[in-house]
Structure formats: C-alpha cells, structure tokens
Amino acid sequence: MEQYSIAIDGPAGSGKSSVSKEIAKILNIVYIDTGAMYRTVGLYCLRNHINLDNAEEIEKALQNIDMKITLSEGKQTIYLNGEDVTETIRTQQAGKAASDVAVIYAVREKLVQIQRELSKGHSVIMDGRDIGTNVLPHATVKIYLNASVEQRTNRRCHELMLLGKEYNKKRIEYEIIQRDENDKNRKYNPLKKAEDAIEIDNSNMDMEQTIKTILNIIKQKINV
Known about the structure:
Blueprint: E1 5-9, H1 16-27, E2 30-33, H2 34-47, H3 55-61, E3 67-72, E4 75-80, E5 83-84, H4 92-101, H5 105-118, E6 124-128, H6 131-135, E7 141-146, H7 149-162, H8 169-185, E8 198-201, H9 207-221
Parallel strand pairs: 1-6, 1-7, 2-6, 7-8
Antiparallel strand pairs: 3-4, 4-5
Helix pairs in contact: 1-9, 2-4, 2-5, 7-8
C-alpha cells in the first residue's frame, strides 16, 4: 500500500490526541503529537523563567533547546535537552505556555520543519492546529475535530479528577476560551478548518464513537 497521511486539527480539548493515538494503533501507522513539541518549548520557558509575552526572549531561548523525538511502535517519546519529558509536559500550565509560544514565528518555523521530517518515510496521523492548512497541506485525509467549550471543559475536569488533582472548573473554562482566542487569532498559521477538511462535532460523542466516525471517513478515502 502507498504511504498516506491523516491530518486532524481542532481546538484544545476536542480529543484530537487521544483519538489520533487510537487510530494509529488500529491502522498500525505512526502517530505524531505536534502539540507535545509546543508544550516542550513552553516547559523550557516556564522552567527558565522566560517571559512568555516577550517574543525576542523566546526566540533566543530556542538556541538552548535541544529537542529530540523518537518514534517506536507508533509511540512518540520527546526529549528536552536529554530529559524524557513525555509525561512532564502534560500539565495545564505547559498547555497554556504552548499556546503562548505558538504565536511566535521562529518557534513555528523550527517545529514545523521537525514535523515534516518526522512525516517522511511512513504513513502517519498527525494532530494539531495547522496540520491540514500548513504542515501537511497535501494530507490524504483531513479532519477538523470540534466540540463545545462546555464539553471540552467537562472533559478536562474529568481528566484531572481521574488523576486525583484539584481543579477549578471556572478557571479551566476561562483558560480554554483564552487558548481558543490565541490559537484562532495568532498571526502565523492560526487554527482554522482547511477547505478540504471534514468537520466533526463530537460534543455528544464518546471517544469510541468519534474514532468510529473518523475511521469510516478514512476508509472512504483510503483502502485500509
């Protein structure tokens, strides 16, 4: 079978990463989590007290960030200056920092180059904000996964509850709204639906239903 690529875009909390990981397992293809890369840059900035409102400071910091990504059996492991940060970056703070650094052109240029290189040589599923519009504009299948702010807030709260972490629902809702604003209004490659993407609103779907819906679309486009 010829190599193919699947691009899944959408706002924070729409379930892109969870769904993409499962589809990668089902189809036995490589999953590339682009959001993890922005979270890694964000984590570095947080740890080193770099002002997230200062583009020049962040651009300088890129020179000190050695990011390595390994792909094994469809799983992505991400290293920051030699440290495995695959789990460390999964905090609300790192997510917010990721949105802040993602508006900076130099950051996007560096990470998009890595993402395109990772996509070569095998079939991939990649999720993010601008995969179908910028990173993989010629992707075989493009999905725009969406959900209401209320549902995305509830999902995040549920995740934190399962982890035994304290949370403030109003705060989480506010951060999701702010992140949407950041992602949709940034100057370079903002979050938007590609013209040839199929939009799915999964506000009233569970993960299994979402996966089934996307797999049906993939099977209509590709003989998998």
